[in-house]
From TrEMBL:
<protein>
    <recommendedName>
        <fullName>Hydrolase</fullName>
    </recommendedName>
</protein>
<dbReference type="InterPro" id="IPR032466">
    <property type="entry name" value="Metal_Hydrolase"/>
</dbReference>
<dbReference type="InterPro" id="IPR001130">
    <property type="entry name" value="TatD-like"/>
</dbReference>
<dbReference type="InterPro" id="IPR053044">
    <property type="entry name" value="Metallo-hydrolase/TatD-type"/>
</dbReference>
<dbReference type="GO" id="GO:0016788">
    <property type="term" value="F:hydrolase activity, acting on ester bonds"/>
</dbReference>
<dbReference type="Pfam" id="PF01026">
    <property type="entry name" value="TatD_DNase"/>
</dbReference>
């Protein structure tokens, strides 16, 4: 998950061959930023949190000293552009979250937990920040990873007209029917199930993802758990889709995902002819433009 403090850390490891660097600003943090002319701190947070009742305004007034001073987003976007030009990679994790409440984060290195506020960042503000980052991904010809929580329709609207590849990470809490609709109308959108998040929604979510749009992820920040959780999600995908699963002694086919009928015409693979890892690797290479 991209945060407001880790862009330089990502850049520092971006030259490793086993890393795909991602630069971007997650929706949990975008309340910190303003677009256009600099507002006062009070005006900024009144606009971003949009409290409707006098009691909520009073709560916000009391929290103002603890909230960070608003920062302009344009310089951060310009730095994202330079980082991606220099390091390659992709834009992410960006997106929309209609559920998350803004947090007051402790200083870096502190063991103190983040303080949860009662306020949510206005969807209009989240959308504006996310749209700028999506436009940057399209400008640079790189894919984007999107966070989506309780914002399926807004995410679909945001992606309309976007010409680059985008991945809905952990399938964004979307229903099987919505995934089917989104995949049908937007051939550049991919989905990456995880066992930590997507498994809560049931097997039908995975079954709804088209073969050529399936990716996989761990959705964890614990380095020691990444491999285990990615493999667990891979096994789960194989089971849900009825695909063959590679093992240490059994591998995929060197057929580029194509099979032919008796007349020599390419036909669609059956599920029981599909290798899981090979399919995920092929999809990943297409997603990142290899």
């Amino acid at each position: 998950m991209s945060t407001y403090i880790d862009q330089d850390s990502v850049k520092a490891v971006a030259d490793r061959k086993d890393i795909q660097p991602c630069f971007g600003y997650h929706p949990w943090f975008v309340h910190r930023y303003y677009l256009g002319e600099q507002p006062s701190k009070r005006d900024h947070y009144l606009a971003v949190f949009a409290p409707k009742k006098a009691k909520q305004v009073a709560e916000l007034e009391a929290l103002l000293p603890q909230l960070p001073d608003p920062e302009p987003f344009e310089p951060l976007l310009a730095q994202m552009r330079e980082n991606i030009k220099e390091c390659g990679g992709m834009v992410g994790e960006i997106g929309l979250d209609a559920t998350a409440r803004a947090r007051i984060w402790p200083p870096r290195g502190s063991d103190e937990p983040a303080q949860m506020t009662p306020f949510k960042t206005a969807m209009t503000h989240q959308t504006a920040i996310c749209k700028l980052q999506l436009e940057l991904a399209e400008e640079l010809g790189v894919p984007a990873s999107l966070h989506c929580v309780n914002a399926s329709g807004a995410t679909m609207d945001l992606l309309k007209g976007h010409r680059g590849n985008a991945c809905i990470h952990s399938c964004g809490g979307m229903s099987p029917d919505f995934i089917t609709q989104l995949a049908r109308t937007m051939p550049n959108v991919y989905f990456s199930p995880s066992v930590l998040i997507t498994a809560r929604l049931g097997d039908d979510v995975v079954r709804a993802v088209p073969r050529d749009r399936m990716l996989v992820e761990s959705d964890t920040s614990s380095i020691g758990d990444i491999t285990r959780l990615i493999w667990a999600a891979t096994v789960w995908i194989s089971t849900c889709k009825g695909w063959k699963l590679e093992t240490e002694n059994v591998g995929g086919d060197d057929d580029d995902g194509e099979v032919f009928d008796e007349k020599g015409h390419v036909r669609e693979l059956r599920d029981d002819e599909t290798w899981t890892v090979q399919t995920l690797e092929r999809n990943w290479n297409r997603f990142i433009g290899r």
